[in-house]
Give the backbone structure.
Amino acid sequence: MHLFDPIKIRDITSRNRIAVSPMCQYSSVDGYANDWHFVHLGSRAVGGAGLVMTEAAAVEARGRISPQDLGIWSDDHVENLARVTKFIQVQGAVAGIQLAHAGRKASNYRPWDGVGTVPEDEGGWSDIIAPSAIPFSDGDLTPKALDTEEIQSLIQTFVDATRRAEAAGFQVVEIHAAHGYLLHEFLSPLTNQRTDDYGGSFLNRTRIVREVVEAVRQHLPERYPLFLRISATDWVEGGWDIEQSVELVRQLQPLGIDLVDCSSGAIIPKVSVPTGAGYQTPFSERIRRETGISTGAVGMITASQQADHIIRTGQADMVLLGRELLRDPYWPLKASIELNQSGSLPPQYLRGKP
Ligand SMILES: Cc1cc2nc3c(=O)[nH]c(=O)nc-3n(C[C@H](O)[C@H](O)[C@H](O)COP(=O)(O)O)c2cc1C
């Protein structure tokens, strides 16, 4: 098995094991995809990635990280997204979408506009939700703790978004349960202090993720893979950790998750994370080995040999690249040359072959 072996999950085949990791572009107005998304995602399909995943797409408007996030909370969002998926597929790549809710980390400035909560008179909102009424950091708005009825409506927003994702032509759906956003906030004891069926014990803290996965899987066509992104650890004593991640995956396997995308961190501020080349890959390796599920490795994977090694040694079934693919949309094509594999230069670019 190597980086350029195709991978088939359910009925969908990716031409190689390279995926574009979801990356917010903070470039939407009212959640709509536009020319930026078309060119940004389209270029990475032209560049040879097997799976091109959108940034976090908000399942409801108040679930956006920033006012400029991509959204899929309305049927009106479908048309522009469909233009993007069509182009990605014509380039031979698979189009995926990450469905997300920011929870207590919503309504923040996009990175180049400032830090912290955006006030309402600048397009922000104060209707922020979470499992428990604990703000992310000092000075942030205190979120409202969801009641059980609201949790059921929230699950429905993921279902409706799944239906729209299919209508827009996406063939892979990833549920975002990482990085301190809403679903991760339920998982972690640091952010979930509920005393009802959705908090306390491991079984209760993980309940909402099981329910979202079950509901989404029911509405996603059988032929399409369902991915789940988790923070495999909070990197904090007393927080969510790799042992709980393994157990969660064991619970989710029978519910129809096909691949676990193994990220980490971001549940609370000021945590020291030992970043470095491939620093999260051991989580992918362990979850894959202990549960037998397919995994994706992500985090400072930048060299073709490094990515190939991860696949060859069975640490993951796919690699997801973030910043390296921002720097170079043609990374997969260059990697195919470096690894002496047949990449897929589009015919328009064949004269560029060495
Ligand atoms: C600009 C930017 C935006 C991001 N947005 C998202 C996102 O929408 N959803 C998500 O799960 N991760 C997001 N991430 C995290 C990346 O998907 C990836 O996990 C992280 O950057 C580590 O991989 P890398 O070292 O290859 O960049 C973002 C990262 C960057 C740099």
Remarks:
- The chain has eleven helices and 13 strands.
- The longest strand covers residues 51-58.
